[in-house]
Design goal:
Layout: E1 26-42, H1 45-57, H2 62-86, E2 90-102, E3 105-119
Antiparallel strand pairs: 1-3, 2-3
Length: about 120
Amino acid sequence: MALYPVQAAPEVHREWVTTAFTVEGSRIVRNLGLVRGIIVRSRSVIGNVGAGFQRIFGGNITLYTEMCEHAREDAFRIMLQHAAALGANGVVGVRYDATEVAPGATEVLCYGTAVVLQSAS
């Protein structure tokens, strides 16, 4: 179940989601405010054991990398749902933040400004 009811239209276009504050070839016609996606993830005991073995040998700890990538993607998707629920078709100024909220549990936050964009042409 989605945290935010997703409207059928307009749709948030991924090409209009950016860390910049403008989208080349378009103009912002309406600012709908802050949107965010939040997810809290934890590592399983089995995942911690597997990562412990990877730490022994050094290098990239792929189990944690994969967990972080999934958490970021989920937070991004939830942010887009929030933007769509407000009627946005784009998000500018996108940022990520992460905080350990409890031992072994990390919050990932993806946020930006929901906007209605119009092609400049």
